[in-house]
Write a structure and sequence with these properties.
The protein has 95 residues and is of the alpha+beta class. It contains 2 helices and 5 strands; from the N terminus they run αβαββββ.
Length: 95
């Protein structure tokens, strides 16, 4: 079973999230909170454009993020010193 999950993990996650979308009432707004293992642009696109889910994904401080204005910073640089993240336009790219 582990081998089947290992090789198909992303597909199973997408199927599970699609099923969740099907069973949620239309008036429910969902925000998905994940760790850095889910940080990939294909997954972001799936959440945002297909499922219409809001999401918060944790990154390592050194991960480079680029917003829609073309401004690139390391994830840790987008944070204010008081532990709260800055509000900015969504990031279009990460490395």
């Amino acid at each position: 079973m582990y081998r089947a999950l290992k090789n198909n993990r992303a597909r199973y996650e997408d199927q599970m999230l699609s099923k969740l979308k099907e069973v949620l009432p239309n008036d429910v707004k969902l925000t998905l909170l994940t760790d850095r293992g889910f940080a990939d642009q294909k997954f972001f696109n799936f959440l945002e454009n297909e499922l219409k889910f809001n999401f918060i994904i944790r990154f390592k401080k050194g991960t480079e993020l680029t917003n829609s204005k073309g401004e690139t910073k390391k994830a840790g640089e987008w944070l204010e010193k008081k532990w709260s993240s800055k509000i900015h336009e969504k990031c279009n790219h990460y490395k």
